[in-house]
Amino acid sequence: MGPHVAVAQFGGSTDKAANRAAVRELVAQAAATGAELVVLPEYSMYAVQDPKVDYRDQLEPVDGEFGSLVSALAKEHSVAIVAGMTVVDEQSDKGINTLLVVGADGELIDTYEKVHLYDAFGFRESDRLRAGDPRAVTFELGGMTFGTMTCYDLRFPEMARLLVDAGADALIVPAAWVVGSAKEDHWTTLLRARAIENTVYVVASGQTGPQCTGLSMVVDPMGVVVANAGEAKGVASAVLDPERVASVRKRNPSLANRRFTVAPK
């Protein structure tokens, strides 16, 4: 079997201390289940739903208070952690929607900067954030390769395919998936679609209500939901199996049958 992973969800707010407390509680809870990897939502550091609010004074560097907490928790509980925050951009007056990828030793493995900003459904994320350049951020854990993306990236199948081409057999998707007409269905459908079309696991952690959908889940390479955290604050976990990926790819060799490649614009 492969690594034991957990998705940990909560409703982030503008109270950074409360957000850090929730992260501390959820990582401990996930670690107690035996998880080797804990995935927290997008905007775990600071979350504001009003697109007109200027929150540049709330941004932090990667090694600021939030990043330092994530590193300390990873080391304390001997778990890898992926968590979303908004980072200071030294090159502009905007922030960067960033995922921290921290190893079980507390060391930063990499960061992923959200490529597709949420300029949809009445929001304009690009008004206050700078998009990252398309880059496949992957890391190894428990004999599997994980690739990272964030929220709105899920609506772009080429983002997942870029990660799979880089060797990913599991996709990590932290999100703050805003509620709305058909939005919960979109979330579930797209997570399962990315799993099915790429024959990979999908490990997705979303913020909870009232603004966001929750429904953090782990989906297997056949599109089967093997863990679901529901709508409330909490944790769901599953053990991934690299043999499951191999057997599904043998039965459904869609990646081998491809006739198109993916390249960034």
Automatic annotation (TrEMBL):
> What range(s) does the CN hydrolase domain occupy?
3-242
InterPro entries in alphabetical order: C-N_Hydrolase, C-N_Hydrolase_sf, UPF0012_CS
Keyword field contains Transferase: no
What domain of life? Bacteria
The UniProt keywords, alphabetically, are: Hydrolase
**A Pfam family in this protein?**
CN_hydrolase
Q: From the UniProt record, which GO molecular function terms apply?
A: hydrolase activity
Q: Which Gene3D superfamilies match?
A: Carbon-nitrogen hydrolase
Q: Which SUPFAM superfamilies match?
A: Carbon-nitrogen hydrolase
Q: Which residues cross the membrane?
A: none
In terms of PANTHER family, this protein maps to: DEAMINATED GLUTATHIONE AMIDASE, NITRILASE-RELATED
The record's family statement is: Belongs to the carbon-nitrogen hydrolase superfamily. NIT1/NIT2 family.
Descriptive protein name? Putative amidohydrolase
Q: Which organism is it from?
A: Calidifontibacter indicus
